[in-house]
Amino acid sequence: MAAWLVAVPFLAFVGTFLVYPTVLVLLGAFQDSNGAFTLENLTTLFKGVYFDSFVRSIELSALTALIGAIFGALLTWAISVGNPDGMLRRIVVAGSGVLAQFGGVPLAFAFLATVGFEGLVTKFLRDNVGIDLFAGSAWLFELPGLTLVYTFFQIPLMVIVFLPALDGLRPQWREANASLGGTSWTYWRHVGGPILTPPFLGALLLLFANAFSAYATAAALVSQGSPIVPLQIRGFLTGEVVLGQENLGKALGLGMVIVVSIAMGVNVLLQRRVAKWVR
After folding, report:
1. Handedness of CA 214, 215, 216, 217 (dihedral sign)
2. Paired residues of 113 in beta bridges
3. CB 201 within 8 A of CB 89
4. Would the pLDDT of 75 be above 90?
5. Exposed (0-12), middle (13-18) or buried (19+): which is 57, by Cβ within 10 Å?
6. Across the strands, what pairs with 31?
7. Which of these, 53, 203, 207, 248, could form a disulfide with 65 (CB 3.0-4.6 Å)?
């Protein structure tokens, strides 16, 4: 009984800020402006700007997840083969923990101050090298800019989630491979690769979900239009609602929940598969 009492604040928090909003989104997605059951909200998601926003969100999330996973895995491997108690590893791990959470408006401001129209790097290149970063378009405030900014927190997140898998590779496996006449290629082909593939794919899915659900950074950078789903939902929350489509924002939210749930479900299955190797 005492254990349940201790858990009451946590359960209340989860119920208020997770379960209750999810139920509202789920019910509202199937209701029209009068509260009657309808599928019109969901069918609208497959049309026009709303479908395009889902496509762009998935493309943005997949691209940044792939870039973050590749470069993050390389950085993780570099620190994993070094001294486990070395200064470099401690700095990278600590820095990754900070940078993975450095998002939202502060991250957008940092990029604006660095590579914005009048950013430090932009002005230096324009005044001293003759290179105008915005000669072609205002790319920082469009999907290419979001790709660059999202990658900034995707790489350190990959370091955090992928490092335990690399640390789980036991030296005895490499020694056994060498004693049997195997090479580095055979070790990674038959031992290291198969073991690391599930956690790598799981981390890739986690990065995808992280980028797909990100909002504050995109909202701070993109002031015109709503190219991705979170910004489409912002339009409904700020009152930019067409008559009869009051619950379309909830349908968009339900679509996001479904996409993220699929990604996280596959991630759980992959983690279960590899858990016995990294204990």
Report:
1. positive
2. none
3. no
4. yes
5. buried
6. 37
7. 207
- pTM assigned to the model: 0.90
Q: Please list, in sequence order, all residues whose beta carbon lies within 8 angstroms of the beta carbon of residue 275, skipping any fewer than 6 positions away.
A: none
List CB contacts of 179: < 8 A, sequence separation 6 or more.
Answer: none
Burial degree of 71 (CB within 10 A; 0-12, 13-18, 19+) = middle
User: What pLDDT shows up at residue 279?
Assistant: 53
Q: For residues 112 and 118, is the Cβ–Cβ distance under 8 A?
A: no
Tokens at 193, concatenated: 């690769």
Q: What is the pLDDT of residues 184-219, one digit of tens each?
A: 889 888 888 888 998 899 999 999 999 999 998 998
Query: Residue 204 to residues 100, 167, 226: CA-CA distances in angstroms?
Result: 15, 18, 25
Helix (H, G, I), strand (E, B) or coil at 252: helix
CA–CA dist 224, 143 (Å, integer): 12
Q: Measured between alpha carbons, how far is 224 from 48 in angstroms, rounded to an integer?
A: 18
Contact call for residues 274 and 198 (beta carbons, < 8 A): yes
State phi, psi for 239 to the nearest 5 degrees.
95, 0
Residues sharing a CB contact under 8 Å with residue 32, sequence separation 6 or more, in sequence order:
38, 40, 41, 244, 247
Residue 35: CB atoms within 10 Å:
10
